[in-house]
Amino acid sequence: MSAPPRTRRRAAARPGVHLLLVVLAVYAMGPMLVLFLSAVKSPAEVSASPLGWPSEFVWENFTTAWTDARMDTGLLNSAVIVLGTVLGVCVISGLAAYALVRLDLPKPGVIMLYLLVVTTMPIQLSLVPLLSWWTTLGLYDTQFGLIVIYWALYSPFATLLLRSYLIAIPPEYEAAARIDGAGELRVFVRIVLPLIWPGILTAALVAGLQAYNEFLLAVTFLQDRESLPASIALFSFQEGYAINYALVSAAGMIMVAPMLLVFLLLQRRFVAGYASTGMAN
């Protein structure tokens, strides 16, 4: 029995799809490969052949970059900032999305419009007033002050993301809990939170990646060397070692490695959670 025409057309189209995926993979991983090859070369070899294969792997570049760039302190500070940002964004966006979908709020359309506008506004418009306000409040040059800014910056998108996820969940689950006498907070924690956990994970990954890679606000609101995240530590190291591209590339690989590992470990949950949120709704 021959395959249906639609099945044959799909089979014929697969080589083209596979070729496109291979091209996209090379396009995405190409810069990472070039960065890694530059990190394991000598400075002279990087200048002579930046795209070529190293004649000898110089693994000492990583230990030198780790020590000279103080990447241990930078990564520890980044971990504190990322964890604080993720925790706050998940709590704020989760509660806000639940309120938008389940509670009888006045003019929810205005709130949605506000969130959409906030997500499109550049943060540069608020730098001057934020600097003045944060200095007055004593939040300037503190990691907590930077984390609070990240909460305000990343929570609107996460709220829209979780709202789209909550729309698809039937409200009957919560109604049964309310009949048993549970309050709104208990309903959210016991009933809603387990159901939207994939969306929470997706929001956490997006906010964590953004906070880890963010540069402008970190370099503006943090001045203490002991509080600088990895992105600023790498920038400062690059300023001092602008000619030694091997060491700069090694420090860049050290910075990229943690988030790359996290994303590779959680990529399936990330993609599944992002797809199931139904952002088109």
Q: Output the CATH class name of the largest domain.
A: Mainly Alpha
Can you tell me the residue ranges where pLDDT is under 50 for at least 5 consecutive residues?
Answer: none
Amino- and carboxy-terminal Cα gap: 41 Å
Could you describe the largest sheet, including whether it forms a barrel? none
Main location: membrane
Protein name: Carbohydrate ABC transporter permease
Membrane topology: Multi-pass membrane protein
Domain ABC transmembrane type-1: 75-266
Folded structure, characterized:
The protein has helices at 5-39, 43-48, 60-68, 71-102, 108-120, 127-137, 143-167, 172-179, 184-195, 197-213, 216-221, 230-240, 245-276. With 281 residues, the chain is mainly α. It has two domains: 5-39; 65-276, MetI-like fold (Orthogonal Bundle). The chain is globular and about 70 Å long. The model has no long low-confidence stretch (mean pLDDT 84).
Brief summary:
This protein is an all-alpha fold and 281 residues long. The protein has 13 helices and no strands. The longest helix has 35 residues, at 5-39.
State the main characteristics.
2 domains; 13 helices; mainly alpha; MetI-like fold; about 280 residues
Secondary-structure topology with pairs:
Layout: H1 5-39, H2 43-48, H3 60-68, H4 71-102, H5 108-120, H6 127-137, H7 143-167, H8 172-179, H9 184-195, H10 197-213, H11 216-221, H12 230-240, H13 245-276
Helix pairs in contact: 1-13, 3-13, 4-7, 4-10, 4-12, 5-7, 7-10, 8-9, 10-13, 12-13
